[in-house]
Sequence to fold (300 residues):
Amino acid sequence: MNLSIEPLRKGDTIAIVSPAKAIERESVLYAQKKLEEFGYKVVVGNNTCGRYNYYSGTITERLSDFQEAIDNPEIKAVLCARGGYGCIQLVDSINWSSVLRQPKWIIGFSDVTVFHQRLQKLGLKSIHGTMPLNFNENSMESFTSLIEAIEQKTYSITVKPNLKNKPGIAKGVLVGGNLSILYSLLGTDDQIDYTDKILFIEDLSEQYYVLDRMMYALKKAGVLDKIAGLIVGGITNMSDTNPPIGETIEEIILKHFHYSKTPVCFGFPAGHINDNRALRFGSATELTVDDSLVKLTIKP
Fold:
């Protein structure tokens, strides 16, 4: 059972923190202005715009910003500035007790999938959505869906059908995120129970054979046999080997569902793409995949 999070209201405070890779100050300031235009107050962590080698700060500095944001009762949502790498360095040192007492939204995608998995284990919802690094390039739907998600509205995302889709209807709790991160957490204490879940995956800049390896790992771990439905978002900037592996992205994924009734859809607008719609993980959802459209309805 997921713990309830209060819907955000205009005037509530959102904190921007950077738990992973460094980000340019201009991107953070642009995001702050954008959120203020939507009616929210915004505070920026002390080290959000810092730099320590690859990262926005040392582990201690990044941890301090994140912990302060989740501990502060005035902050109703924590927006991660960007992904990259670094969340795994923090997840076991974060004291999550305050968000169990007073649940709040943790928002982000890519490397932030580490936090989504931990929050799912704790029975908390979270939001897979756009981050300040991408605000300047994102579609308006990226923002409107984010607002719908944090304000706890029921909303639907519809997509044109893909000829490779596997039709069907699935109902279940929505989970997932970046495939490379999900793969890296298999067999760890942050692997969630995928039984009857609707799984969303996306990834960036991998080779086709790496995608194949990760899908086999999910299959061998029992994940693909347990889920109720699969949503494939942006699988972008992929590269093949020379000679090529001989399979398309769709074929690499679909071969694991030949004898399954699990619906599968491709080309969903979420991930490392400009039209990055927000997904409220931990929410009850319904996925419909047929010849006329794909529709995902996300409930509070």
About this structure: The mean pLDDT is 97. The two ends are 13 Å apart (CA to CA). The domain at 13-152 is CATH 3.40.50.10740 (Rossmann fold).
